[in-house]
Write a structure and sequence with these properties.
The complex is a heterodimer of chains A (about 1050) and B (about 525).
Chain A lengths: L3 H25 L4 E9 L9 E4 L5 E3 L5 E6 L4 E5 L6 E4 L7 E3 L3 H6 E4 L2 E4 L7 E5 H4 L7 H4 L7 E5 L8 E5 L12 E4 L2 E4 L37 E7 L2 H4 L10 E6 L5 E15 L9 H15 L19 H5 L3 E14 L2 E13 L6 E16 L2 E15 L9 H7 L27 H7 L1 E18 L4 E20 L3 E2 L2 E2 L4 E24 L3 E24 L14 E25 L3 E12 L8 E12 L12 E15 L10 E7 L2 E6 L10 E14 L4 E18 L4 H4 L11 E19 L6 E18 L6 E7 L2 E8 L7 E4 L2 E4 L3 H4 L4 E2 L17 E3 L7 E2 L5 E4 L5 E11 L2 E11 L2 E4 H6 L44 E3 L2 E12 L2 H6 L4 E15 L20 E2 L7 E10 L1
Parallel strand pairs in A: 1-7, 13-16, 42-44, 48-52
Antiparallel strand pairs in A: 1-4, 2-3, 2-5, 5-6, 8-9, 10-15, 11-12, 13-14, 15-16, 17-18, 17-53, 18-19, 19-20, 20-21, 21-22, 22-23, 23-26, 24-25, 26-27, 27-28, 28-29, 29-30, 30-31, 31-34, 32-33, 34-35, 35-36, 36-37, 37-46, 38-39, 39-40, 40-45, 41-43, 46-47, 47-50, 48-49, 50-51, 51-53
Helix pairs in contact in A: 8-9
Chain B lengths: L1 H21 L12 E2 L7 H6 L10 H15 L3 E2 L3 H7 L8 H27 L6 H26 L22 H18 L17 H14 L3 H14 L4 E2 L6 E2 L18 E5 L13 H5 L15 E2 L1 H6 L7 H6 E2 L4 E2 L6 E2 L12 E2 L22 E5 H16 L2 H14 L10 H11 L6 H6 L3 H9 L5 E3 L6 E3 L16 H6 L14
Parallel strand pairs in B: 3-4
Antiparallel strand pairs in B: 2-6, 5-11, 7-10, 8-9, 12-13
Helix pairs in contact in B: 3-4, 3-5, 5-6, 6-7, 6-8, 7-8, 8-9, 8-13, 9-13, 13-14, 13-15
Classes of the chains: A mainly beta (about 1050), B mainly alpha (about 525).
């Protein structure tokens, strides 16, 4: 590819020269006046390829490589200078030399908005579309584009599920739309659709990251968008309402994010180099007991468990501070990025070629991410009637993964681990727990450093198109897009001995996975303007796509040494497995846009999708939409009204669908297993032949207007989304399926219920005059949604369960009339401090009031509220204890420029959402031996400490740790997400050193967070993108604070 | 002219491009890496293999994590310091207990898998396959379903009877059924298996003994009748099984004995499916989690398995240790409990127990179901070993026979004869006139760490059970004194502790579990 492009460019340049010479020669004979000059842009850069035509004739030339032109014209002629992307100028010939400065046509560039399968003038758009431009997200040290969307557009909520480099992000466009399917939007990258679902529900059904830990696996998602280099992006358009996304039919219900990568601009070739270097620093650590405190606690708990006292702990005050495990696992981490790009173009061709490298260490020891990308985008006008182009990117990412957001994760281990144990022994080997400790935690440093879990992802993503102009008004475009990737996951657990704790045989586990996706599109577009006032655009299209995957898992173990673990050389744990599958979608769609006199616009679309996900008879779904806009400002009666400008009222209605479910969910499969009698065939799932599309209907109403000579602009949109027939894997009860047990039959996918998201998105913008020395641009976006479940199956409630500390906990409840995934548990009334508190109190969990260590309730225990008033406290007294949905989320962007300095400040936050802090629960449990705890636990209740803040220490069975409002915290926060200060060299100076642009900047990402949340980071997101586990913090990898210096140079 | 060419060209391209979508099966994507149920059961081999899974993976969580917590910890045969498992030891298990929940889920997974075979096979099977083959498979599935219900009814009491899971998938409220109906359901299943499973004679080809037979079902049904206190039926069925000659006492000296084996040999992987085995779970040596037997990981001390497992999770209680009539003479002691310094020649090619072995403060280790490393034990990996788990073996059947006879179900002499066969195999003297207490004791020792003792205690009635359990020594040895002294721990259960609570999540999902059980409608 890289070879091909320069050749094409050369060819084109030659062609231009030839053309130029021919013109020159041809015109000389009739010469009356010869005009010459240089054409430059506003920055003084010469523009090659500008058309110079004598007005009213066919006489003309094209400016050469240095922007020079020579043209012989009639005297009194007028020259027309035209060039794509610039404002056309007409100049009357007065002398023999005319130098021209063309200004960029910002208007036209700005206002073209990419919509599905086409583009439209912003002013004509009648659906809800937000745009994020390259300059909004440049110079921000985030490796993924999904992360960069945070706070940038109203109605788009982005939370990182983990601070681990390369991990998945939850992107929610206008609330949550589905129960267990993915709520991630569909991404269209240069025409190629990519699912944002890191769990790959709709394809292989497994995250590509393998941590080998089965059920209690923590955060497993890695971002499907990690392969895309944000520096290559020109614009991101987010289609939010159904009238905009209906053209994507069955995949539009979660919104669509259209990402367009950079194209070369006509003019002199540009060579750019962008780089930054960052230091990422952990923001905070959670307070846990030091060794003396731990010793005191261990003595107390040990007594409760009847352990022999530990001699060393007899006098805790003599002990040193012990190991601070968190300090050991968190460390400053470096990140660097380099990107080089070449871009440019002539009249008939443009190109953008880039290569990027980013290398990010994680702030948790043993985690890292790096990526190499190359990209080539070329567009050419081969003939008057034929445009062709390609955009192609190849990438490789390498990740070192650690386990997090799990009770067994490295972060949880560092919190709970016993400070009496060192990280290393004096001889440099890893230390570990003693065999006599009944509750042993692995040394997390040893785990992180000796277990290697690497993921390499290679990906080629591209799109090739040809566009034929059949007649003046009719074009036909055909596209072939592909997304081909392979993922290599290598996990090696060596033999080890930490303290008295030794691992057994070494195990090597490899996964090799190929994903092939291709799409073919055929689009016919008719566009015509009738009688100067009727504008009609009609699109008809057809599309087919197929996704295939295949993977092999192989395992070997018990290698002679830990040095060269290679399959086939080990002596145990042999295992191989293979998985494969495919899905297909066939679609037909059409859209008509009619606009009248720049005042009224009506858009209607329909799409029919045929999906392999459903049984015969249910395969096809139909998704219509209609929307309209009224540009009030363009009405005659508004002519004299100029206090408010550019008023546009718009609204739309559309139906979209969702089909993100496993393959063949309508039928029943058999899993093969190995048994003592040979291969066995387990029933894998229950069938449901009636399975059909999940659908969502949305109504959107919006108002745009500007004030103060367009310096202030506002967009206000309200919406109502009704999602119904959710694709939900319903297991009403475990005794029907077998629950989490091996050999359980997974619940069938069903269509179930109805949910409404109502919301309002407001974007306000303000800018000062752009020609002043000091420029200030500011924009605020605020989003609010209200989610409500309208209908489920009868009285059914849906639980959000998670395995916490080896026990399956019901954390959230979803029921009719309430928002999705509310925290569910007990209400705490206080602590039983005196016998008076106990007298007449409701019996708690059938545990008699008795002074005993277990199976009883006694002084110092938590008093739970008898919510239903039946005189006893039991599981019926669980109630809603918190709401993870925010009241509103917001982003505030400010950019200031003064002469050559620019400063941008970006704030972002969320208000009114609750977090269930499971880390705090574990750290204040006070019921385990050999487990570190929060210092607050030492303020436990005892006869001598009746006013304690914490309940008594207890044994494992204590209900004190039941999920309750003790663990609910306000998750509101305001974060200074990014502050960047930049300085650009004045062009006068940079010209002298032969540089077109030179900018240096320094930034701080995640500078400070204002919050009352006690955990690491209030930005918790949805646990593994699960909508039912929103706001659950189970030891999430915290996002670091990042200090960056960087530079941009254009030659 | 040019336009015409262009249009032709485009049409050509369009046709090429559109061609794949015209194919009818483009949108038809059956599974590519597994069987579609509708396409399975086409050959006899497929039908036979169609029940293999019922002997293994769905049982994994129950056997590995729960069966011993209930059978041994709650009964007082074992003890632990582990806070989670300790809840079984001291009757503190609640409906939120993750381990208890695993038993519910695992046993219902067995039922779900069995039901799927039972309800799908008759319609999906290739009609060319003979009824005998199909009915044998159905008999196996019903046998195994009944066994899962038998555990459920003993652990939880009344439970919902699910005969066809697909009927309940979308049904939020499912009532529980009466205990007597659960037993009736179990008996019908075993009767079906008696009528439809193959008749077998257990021979030296151990592999062919793996699947249950008509006789296996009869033996299980005898045990059910024992629980129902229908001693005549229990005796009659046990007697029929004994007389059938299908099974042998491995190491027994009577006509129904197999002198080539011994009590100790019963628990070696190499002797999986020996002639004493009536029904055993068949674990794989694949080493994959949940495909193999995970018990050794919990029972063994560190170092035996060759992996980092070997958690010493349970110790033999002082009460159990003292229950042996003679630790030297009774061969079962050495095969069940590891003494410090004991030598096991076959284990890992020769294993001497550490002098400091001390599972959970008992100064002893566990031998039963501890089988050693992968190299000497036929493969496997951490938490996944290939040794069978007995659900019922002939030794127990003889004790069922004895108990039924002593309780008046048949000739006492025949029962005493069976009883003493078991004792003699263990190296003990005959007891001329054993009592019910003797049988109870013999069952405790014979089946120690085979997860039966809790049910044996509880089925003698609450008065006996509470008295017995509250006086069982579950304490530890204090080694700071010489000789070590006992730090006593005893716990008194309440009536309600004799059944375990339903998992809380299930009650929440299905509040009908808290309502009175209803009669099951047999058709």
């Amino acid at each position: 590819m890289r070879k091909l492009i320069p050749k094409n460019i050369c060819g084109n340049i030659k062609f231009s020269y030839t053309f130029f010479i021919i013109c020159l020669v041809g015109q000389l004979a009739l010469a009356q006046t010869q005009v010459q000059g240089v054409i430059t842009d506003e920055n003084g850069v010469s523009l090659a390829g500008v058309n110079v035509i004598e007005k009213g004739t066919s006489n003309g030339v094209v400016a050469d490589f240095d922007g020079r032109y020579v043209l012989t014209t009639q005297s009194n002629a007028t020259l027309v200078f035209s060039y794509v992307g610039f404002i056309t100028q007409e100049i009357k010939v007065t002398g023999s030399e005319i130098n021209v400065t063309l200004s960029e046509d910002l208007q036209s560039l700005d206002e073209i908005v990419v919509i599905g399968y086409g583009s439209q003038l912003k002013e004509d758009i009648s659906g809800s579309v937000s745009t994020v431009k390259a300059e909004d997200i440049e110079n921000i040290p985030q490796v993924g584009i999904d992360q960069l969307l945070q706070g940038r557009a109203a109605g788009v909520s982005v939370t990182k599920n983990s601070g681990q480099p390369g991990s998945a992000v939850s992107v929610r466009i206008r609330g949550v739309n589905t129960l267990t399917g993915s709520s991630e939007p569909l991404y269209i990258i240069d025409g190629v659709p990519i699912s944002g679902d890191s769990n790959n529900i709709a394809t292989s059904g497994r995250s590509i990251a393998d941590n080998g830990l089965g059920q209690d696996a923590g955060s497993t998602g890695v971002s499907p968008l990690a392969a895309i280099n944000p520096n290559d992006i020109e614009s991101i358009n987010i289609l939010k309402d159904a009238s905009a996304t209906a053209i994507y039919g069955s995949r539009g219900s979660n919104g669509v994010v259209i990402i367009t990568t950079k194209k070369g601009k006509s003019g002199v070739g540009k060579l750019s180099y962008d780089t930054y270097f960052s230091v990422q620093r952990p923001t905070n650590i959670i307070d846990v007991l030091d060794l003396p405190g731990y010793a005191r606690l261990q003595n107390e708990i040990g007594a409760i468990y009847g352990l022999d006292p530990t001699v060393e702990y007899q006098n805790p005050s003599l002990l040193g501070p012990g190991t601070s495990w968190q300090k050991e696992i968190f460390d400053d981490a470096l990140m660097k990025s380099h990107q080089i790009s070449f871009s440019g173009g002539q009249e008939n061709i443009n190109y953008f070629i880039s290569a990027g490298f980013v290398d990010q260490e994680g702030t948790v020891i043993g985690s890292s991410f790096d990526r190499i990308t190359v990209r080539a985008n070329v567009n050419a006008k081969l003939k008057e009637w034929l445009n062709v182009g390609i955009s192609l990117t190849g990438s490789r990412t390498n990740e070192d993964l650690t386990l997090n957001n799990s009770s067994n994760g490295i972060i949880s281990l560092s919190l709970f681990n016993n400070p009496a144990i060192g990280v290393y022994n004096p001889d440099g080997s890893f230390a570990g727990p003693k065999l006599s400790d009944d509750f042993r935690y692995q040394n997390p440093i040893a785990d992180a450093l000796s277990i290697s879990n690497k993921l390499t992802r290679n990906r080629i993503l591209g799109n090739l198109y040809a566009e034929f102009k059949l007649t003046k008004n009719l074009t036909y475009r055909t596209e072939f897009g592909g997304d081909f990737g392979n993922n290599l996951s290598d996990r090696f657990v060596p033999t080890y001995t930490y303290g008295d704790f030794s691992g057994g045989e070494s195990i090597l586990s490899l996964r090799r996975e190929n994903n092939d996706f291709w799409i073919i599109k055929n689009l016919v577009t008719f566009n015509k303007r009738f009688n100067e006032v009727h504008d009609v655009t009609v699109l008809a299209g057809q599309e087919i796509q197929e996704s295939k995957w295949e993977g092999v898992i192989a395992q070997d173990g018990n290698f002679v040494s830990n040095d060269v673990p290679i399959l086939g050389t080990g002596d145990a744990n042999d295992f191989t497995d293979q998985y494969k599958g495919s899905t297909a979608l066939e679609s037909y769609f059409g859209r008509a846009i009619y606009s009248y006199d720049n005042r009224y616009n009506v858009t209607a679309s329909i799409r029919a999708d045929g999906s392999s996900k459903f049984a015969e008879g249910n395969k096809w779904g139909y998704f219509p939409s209609i929307s309209g806009s009224w540009r009030i400002s363009n009405e005659n009666f508004m002519e004299d009204f100029d206090a408010v400008q550019n008023i546009k009222l718009y609204g739309g209605y559309g139906e979209v669908g969702n089909q993100n479910i496993t393959n063949f969910a309508y039928g029943s499969r058999l899993n093969t297993i190995s048994t003592g009698m040979g291969t066995g065939f387990e029933y894998a799932n229950f069938e449901n032949k009636d399975l059909t599309w999940e659908s969502s209907t949305q109504t959107n109403l919006g108002l745009d207007f500007q004030l103060f000579k367009s310096r202030f602009n506002a967009t206000i949109e309200v919406y109502n989304k009704v999602s119904k027939d959710f694709l939900y894997q319903l297991a009403v009860t475990d005794f029907v399926t077998g629950g989490q047990s091996p050999g359980a039959i997974t619940a069938p996918w069903v269509n179930l219920g109805e949910m409404v998201n109502k919301g309002i998105d407001i974007t306000l913008g303000f800018k000062t005059k752009s020609d002043a020395d000091f420029v200030w641009n500011s924009s605020i976006s605020v989003s609010h949604y209200k989610n409500k479940v309208n209908k489920l199956l009868g009285e059914l409630t849906i639980n959000g369960d998670l395995t916490v500390d080896n026990s399956n906990q019901n954390l959230t409840l979803t029921q009719v009339g309430q928002p999705l995934g509310l925290f569910y548990g007990y209400q705490v009334e206080g602590i039983f401090r005196t016998l008076d508190d106990i007298n007449g109190a409701p019996v708690q969990f059938e545990r008699p009031f008795e002074d005993a260590l277990f199976s009883t309730t006694w002084l110092g225990d938590i008093k739970f509220k008898d919510v239903n008033g039946d005189g006893v406290v039991n599981s019926d007294d669980r109630t809603v204890i918190g709401n993870p949905h925010p009241d509103f989320t917001f982003g505030i962007q400010n950019s200031f420029a003064y002469k050559n300095f620019d400063l941008s400040v970006f704030l972002q936050g969320s208000s009114g959402n609750d977090i269930l802090n499971l880390v705090d629960r574990a750290l204040t449990a006070g019921n385990r031996t050999y487990t570190n705890q929060s210092p607050s636990v030492l303020d436990y209740w005892s006869i001598d400490n009746p006013n304690s803040s914490q309940p008594r220490l207890a044994r494992n069975d204590t209900p004190n740790i039941n999920i309750s409002d003790r663990y609910i915290e306000d998750g509101s926060y305001l974060r200074i997400q990014n502050v960047t200060l930049g300085y650009s060299l004045p062009s006068a100076v940079s010209d002298k050193i032969g540089v077109a642009r030179f900018k240096v900047y320094g930034s701080i990402q995640n500078l400070y967070t204002f919050t009352n949340y006690s955990g690491y980071d209030p930005e918790v997101g949805a646990y593994n993108q699960n909508a039912l586990l929103l706001g659950v913090d189970n030891g999430r990898y915290p996002s670091p604070r990042t200090f960056t210096i960087g530079m941009n140079i254009d030659f | 002219m040019k336009n015409i060419f262009k249009i032709k060209f485009l049409l050509l391209i369009s046709l090429i491009v559109l061609a794949p979508s015209c194919s009818e099966d483009f949108l038809d994507r059956p599974p590519e890496d597994s069987y579609n149920v509708a396409d399975f059961y086409q050959t006899e081999d497929q039908v036979n293999a169609g029940t293999n899974h019922l002997y293994s993976r769905p049982w994994f969580n129950f056997i590995t994590n729960v069966a011993w917590c209930i059978g041994e910890l709650s009964s007082g045969n074992g003890r632990t310091w582990d806070p989670r498992n300790g809840d079984f030891d001291n009757f503190a298990v609640t409906g939120q207990h993750g381990t208890l929940t695993q038993s519910w889920e695992s046993l219902y997974a067995v039922i779900a898998q069995s039901n799927s075979v039972i309800n799908t096979l008759p319609t999906a099977v290739n009609p060319d396959i003979s009824d005998e083959v199909v009915n044998n498979a159905l008999g196996e599935a019903r046998f195994i379903r009944a066994t899962a219900y038998f555990y459920l009814v003993r652990i939880f009491g009344s439970v919902p009877i699910i005969a066809d899971n697909t009927e309940y998938v979308l049904q939020p409220l499912v009532p529980r059924n009466r205990v007597e109906d659960v037993y009736e359901f179990i008996k019908r299943d075993y009767q079906f298996a008696i009528d439809n499973c193959y008749q077998k004679i257990r021979g030296s080809s151990f592999d062919s003994n793996a699947k249950v037979s008509s006789g296996s079902a009869k033996a299980m049904l005898a045990k059910i009748y024992l629980y129902e206190e229908n001693y005549a039926m229990a005796y009659q069925l046990a007697d029929e099984v004994i007389n059938s000659g299908e099974f042998k006492l491995y190491g027994g000296d009577a006509e129904d004995g197999d002198a080539s084996g011994s009590y100790y040999d019963l628990f070696l992987t190499a002797n999986n499916n020996n002639p004493e085995s009536i029904f055993a779970l068949q674990w794989s040596n694949s080493g994959q989690y949940s495909e193999g037997n995970g018990l050794q990981s919990l029972f063994a001390q560190a170092g035996i398995t060759g992996f980092s497992d070997g958690y010493s999770a349970i110790g033999p209680s002082i009460d159990l240790q003292n229950a042996y009539e003679d630790q030297e003479e009774d061969l079962r002691y050495y095969a069940t409990i590891m003494d410090p310094g004991s030598f096991y020649p076959d284990l890992n090619g020769g294993y001497t127990v550490s002098e400091t072995v001390d599972h959970q403060g008992t100064n002893k280790g566990i031998k039963k179901y501890v089988v050693g490393n992968a190299a000497t034990n036929g493969g496997g990996a951490q938490q996944s070993y290939p040794n069978n788990t007995y659900i019922l073996r002939y030794g127990e059947l003889l004790l069922i026979h004895a108990e039924a006879a002593l309780m008046g179900g048949g000739p006492t002499s025949a029962g005493i004869n069976s009883f003493n066969k078991v004792r003699r195999r263990a190296g003990l003297q005959n007891i001329a006139n054993p009592t019910l207490d003797d049988v109870f004791h013999e069952r405790r020792i014979e089946l120690a760490f085979e997860f039966e003792f809790w049910y044996d205690v509880v089925r003698r009635g609450p008065a006996f059970a509470i008295d017995f359990l509250s006086t069982t020594e579950r304490g530890t040895y204090n080694d700071d004194t010489t000789p070590p002294t006992i730090e006593s721990e005893m716990y008194t259960p309440s009536m309600s502790d004799l059944l375990f609570p339903y998992p809380s999540n299930e009650i929440q999902n299905n509040p009908a579990l808290l309502e009175d059980p209803i009669p099951y409608e047999f058709d």
